Task: structure prediction
Amino acid sequence: MFEALLGNGLILKKIIESIKELVTEVNFEVTSEAISLQAMDASHVALVVLVLRASEFEEYRCDRPQTLGVSITNLAKLLKIAGNDDSIILRAEDEAHVLTLVFTGKNNEKMCEFNLNLLTLDSEHLGIPEQEYSAEVTMSSSEFSRICRELTQVTDTLNLSVDKESVKFAVSGDIGTGSITMKANNSDKSEEKLILNVSDTVSMAFALRYLNLFNKASSLSDEVVLSLSPEVPVVLKFAFDLGELKYFLAPKIAE
Amino acid sequence: GKYQEVLSKFYYVG
Result:
């Protein structure tokens, strides 16, 4: 038996909204420690890694570890029915064929119960070694989101350069070229604050289309942490009370 | 033109 009660159901709605355009069918691994998933997008250039810690749920029980194959598309449809103030219970019997979702209103005035059919999915796990990155950028997630969105109007590729003092977001397209440079600072204003942890200067290129999809998670966390090393995928980390959502994206490489 | 490598180039498939 697996059962998890989340008082703040909105966070689960936001998480699924943040990944549903990247991954459509995923295996959730449920253990006594956490609910987790790791899934690549269809073109295998982006990876989503989610961990929700058991200790952060209001109630949590997992008698034996289990893999739950879930259609994210269908889960998103059901979660749309849950109100923003609802609590959500996730429940599955051992060797389950369905995932039961229960949405309960704040004043217990209304309860919705749905059984989502589970899928048997091939798992394609990537082994990701722990790694030291050359540069780590911590900044406002809404500011990063805004920069990516605005620069998408110029072109489809973001050139990201980080040194010890600043981070530069540069683009080059048919209409011209441009860049946005932000200096490291410890502003009281969260949208201005930028923390750099840089051992080596890096300069890399990424598809803005993917970064814009990742930035849907900016509703989960005020901050985003970008980890960069030459010639390896960039990591965008969004941390929140319940756990963390990380996106990996392979760099673009000049032909 | 530019292209994007698949992730399995960087991380082993387990």
